[in-house]
């Protein structure tokens, strides 16, 4: 009976957690409200003696609604039950207030319960709507009472207290149920969260182990070399079991013991040491073939004394097996007493060991295969190299070699030297007989040759004369020998071509005669010198006499006879001539520093250790060349200057002349007409044209002086030049309110002080003229970097800049980008000329609206 009652009172449970929570709230509220309302009905019937009143009917109706809501919830219609509960209670309360005391009825307070229910069960939108209609109902009751539609009535204090107590009990019970429900929910959530965290942590650990095992599998499978494989196995085991103390032992080839191949941590000192079967953890694992784990190693009966003092607290050893045979062990240890090996870690290490066994077996097989392959490759390589060496020697040999059969004289093979010497075509000659190739003059000669070689096995002929396919006479040293080739008797023939040697001997005899005549006629002194620089021979010249008699310098080293610069130059030429076997020539002047006489020395190798030096006096040629170069340069400069002046006269001077000529005609008309004002205006225009012409002529004259009339060059700090130039244009700078910055500690330059000041002055003056609408004009003078070993100076402004298409014109004669500006347009031409006279270079970088930067280089010392 009690269980049945519990089932009736218990809320239903659904798959959806939210529906279960809502059903629990409705169930708790409904049973609490039914109990409280039933108690109120009983008290009103038996204590207050009420019978059949309207309020009792409303209360009974609410109880029935609550029971109906419970039935709806049991059927699973949670949303429907929630709406029905809120609407029914709100309607009942409103109807009770309407029929009773209106605004003064205690049921108005029950709106709070309805509002809480709607908020919890149906969300904030329904709760907001419920609140709005409740407020509307309250104001409706107030208007109804204020308009006198119902009489003012107030319950007795005890009745009002009774009803108010019932409402408070319902609200209090509802709040208690809510708080209690929330506490249970929070507690359940907390327990569930804890369980979930534990499960998630376990899953993460398993996932980490599986991931690591997967990575270990891939890493082990991909490693074929044994040592990197062992390192990878221990690294994975150390990482997964979170301990640095790991080692791996492998079975020796004779299977007498296990040797520690690699170990880390406490095991590192045992690398290379062996373990016997049954001794220690490693020996026990080898003996039993099973995993052994001890969580208290100091108390373990199989411990090794040396390991007892190492600080190991727990140890785990697993066998490495190939089939049923133990081929090694994998051991990990803990040195922290708080750490023990879990079952998951033991299983993980066993899996790693299984994979490692397979990988190690593969690695050992791979290394064996690699050794066999390497041995085979070495053998094949040596055989191939031997064959290649023979083939290269055969083909590259300067000795002509051929192989022919003994009986027919069929040509089987020959090297390149043979084809060149005989003139036969290798494409068509291989396979032909000696008769087809016409090697012998008569068959009888070949038969005699065959008889002799068969008898002697080899024949040597130091003076073999023959005619090639191209009818060229050849001389050779011939050697013939019988050989066996694929079971057939063949003749190996070798011919050393001495045709060139004989021709050389003849030519040498003729050359010696010619050389003797030439040496007596050439105007050069000839010295023979060895690699160390010792003069070993001398042939006098008819034109040049040595500085001392031959007996004073023969046998002496040139370092003792010549200045250091000449001796070093000579030794370098000797080394290059001997190394390259090519002619090397150099020139030098005597005496050093004055160079009043010039010589040309030509060095040629005559052997690997000896060279000849032919010395010729070239002083007259050098003087003529120098004079010619100076004349050519002077002529080029004059021609360039003449071209510039011609251009100026033909173009720019023509304009003021035309102006003067035109206004002279106007003067005659003005005088005839008596127009004095116009006459004066025309005279002023003629005067302006003459002044312009005068300015142009002055500028041209100044340009012509640059490079022709120069002051003495001197060393000048560029900072001083910049300050002097800026001082000359200070008036324009101040009138335009231009800020000026000059970099400190700039390099010292070498040149004409007045001309260099003119360069900076012209560039700064130009920058000041074209500041444009810049509110804060600024000009900077500085130095940055080097070009061809010369410092690069710059003058930078933030003015109007120059269009890119005009950059090439600004240094031209009379080129003015702004026709309304003052000046003749020749300033930058003079600047360029001065810079070039000082062996420098000038250029400009600019962008319209962003200012311009003029760069130029100057020498810091005299030109070499």
Structural account:
This protein is of the alpha+beta class and 864 residues long. A hairpin with a 4-residue loop joins strand 12 and strand 13. The mean pLDDT is 79. It contains 26 helices and 23 strands. It has a six-stranded antiparallel beta sheet, sandwiched between helices.
Provide a short characterization of the protein structure.
The protein contains 26 helices and 23 strands. It is an alpha+beta fold and 864 residues long. The chain has a 6-stranded antiparallel β-sheet, sandwiched between helices. Strands 8-7-11-10-9 form a 5-stranded antiparallel β-sheet, with helices on both faces. A 5-stranded antiparallel β-sheet has the order 13-12-16-15-14.
Summarize model confidence as the mean pLDDT: 79
Low-confidence stretches: none
Per DSSP, what share of the residues sits in E-state strands of 2 or more residues?
15-25%
Give the count of helical stretches. Answer: 26
What is the number of E strands?
Answer: 23
Radius of gyration: 60 Å
Strand order of the largest sheet: 3-2-1-6-5-4
Largest sheet: 6 strands, antiparallel
Approximately how much helix is present in the residues? 40-55%
Structural class: alpha+beta
What form results from the Cα inertia axes? flat
What is the end-to-end distance?
A: 127 Å
